[in-house]
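As noted in the main text, all predictions were made from sequence alone. Below is one such record, for Flavodoxin family protein.
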Amino acid sequence: MKALIVYAHPRKESFSYALLNRVKKVLEKKNYEVEVRDLYAMNFNPILDGPDMIYTNEGDFVRENNEYPADVKIEQQLIMESELLIYLFPIWWNGMPAIMKGYIDRVFQHGFAYSFTSDEPKRRFTGKRALFLTPTGQPQSLTGEDTKITQAIKTLTSEWLFNSIDVEIIDHIFYGRVPYLSREELEDYIEETEEIIDARV
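Prediction:
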């Protein structure tokens, strides 16, 4: 089995990076072949250029470039080869980092991840599963239930990204108050994530 982790954080000293390494290890223990796409380390280009974007012309959806850019094709192929998709990124200003948003804009394009004229993208993603791991400085509810902010973020990220294709969302986990927690408390977060992956992935 193959797992693809798309990761976005610029600092290797971060909680996000520690979480990434532990998630990778627990997946490997479960015999996953793990591919990590560290967008900052790759210097991934997040800009969707005009010739690559879809637009309407006399009622038809078209783009100037007939093919996706070479770097986008690589990312799309890795998605196709993977049964498990994991997206690990911090929540900044109640949204994903710009480089992750650019990855979505460029990789999850019309004709690949969705289509207004064909069900091919839906068939392409059938059977895949996804997990979202998102550290944040926001507080979490004491009950563990979604706050208005976390539900809004889910709606605009994990739920929206796969809303038209048959990808099972395993979970969207928020790690609240990360900048204010002790190492021990952050370690608890990581261990809880390992348990979730071990039980549900």
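The longest helix spans residues 183-200. Residues 111 and 120 are 8 Å apart (CA to CA). These features were considered when defining construct boundaries for the mutagenesis experiments described in Section 2.9.
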